[in-house]
TrEMBL record:
Belongs to the AIR carboxylase family. Class I subfamily. The gene is purE. Keywords: Isomerase, Lyase, Purine biosynthesis. This is N5-carboxyaminoimidazole ribonucleotide mutase. Residues 4-155 form the PurE domain. Pfam families: AIRC. It is an enzyme of class 5 (isomerase). Pathway: Purine metabolism; IMP biosynthesis via de novo pathway; 5-amino-1-(5-phospho-D-ribosyl)imidazole-4-carboxylate from 5-amino-1-(5-phospho-D-ribosyl)imidazole (N5-CAIR route): step 2/2. It comes from Phaeobacter gallaeciensis. It catalyses: 5-carboxyamino-1-(5-phospho-D-ribosyl)imidazole + H(+) = 5-amino-1-(5-phospho-D-ribosyl)imidazole-4-carboxylate.
Length: 162
């Protein structure tokens, strides 16, 4: 069994339908990961513990998704040097712009690599994690290159009628 190098964390169970998109990409590329509900607001002790132990447990990337006042990715970035990829989850009230602004505007010193709002952002977070891991894993690098090539090949040259 491959070592778990990626943690997918989210502020709530309600984020899972979005964050599943990151997990699906990691599944497609054969990357082991763990999933946890961790909230800066609701489970601050859990966040602290996760951040404190992440590097020693061998995590190389943390994908963190949250919606609304989305402090989770930034707080996690403040607690661990493991790179944090943030996914702004789409919200009903403000369409996820609230999540995006909460995640993207980090102060100098504690970066979060912020993805697009919603499903595209979650999938891209998986791909970003894969790209980071592929730097030290040539088999994965090949799988990622193949995945990218297959995607390009699936795009028709001309638009089709439905
Ligand atoms: N933004 C955060 C954090 C956090 O940043 O710590 N914890 C929960 N939440 C968000 O609250 C939204 C609503 O959560 P509920 O559906 O559980 O009420 C979710 O999108 C979650 O990410």
């Amino acid at each position: 069994m491959a070592e778990t190098r990626v943690g997918i964390i989210m502020g709530s169970q309600s984020d899972w339908p979005t964050m599943k998109g990151a997990a699906e990409i990691l599944d497609e590329l054969g990357i082991a990961y763990e999933t946890r509900i961790v909230s800066a607001h609701r489970t601050p002790d859990r966040l602290w513990e996760y951040g404190k132990t992440a590097a020693d447990r061998g995590l190389h990337v943390i994908i963190a998704g949250a919606g609304g006042a989305a402090h989770l990715p930034g707080m996690m970035a403040s607690k661990t040097r493991v790179p944090v990829v943030g996914v702004p989850v789409q919200t009903r009230a403000l369409s996820g712009v609230d999540s995006l602004y909460s995640i993207v505007q980090m102060p100098k010193g504690f970066p979060v690599a912020t993805m697009a709002i919603g499903a595209a952002g979650a999938a891209n977070a998986g791909l970003m994690a894969a790209g980071i891991l592929a730097l030290q894993d040539s088999d994965l690098a090949q799988r990622l290159d193949d995945w990218r090539e297959a995607l390009s090949a699936s795009i028709p040259e001309e638009p089709q009628d439905d």
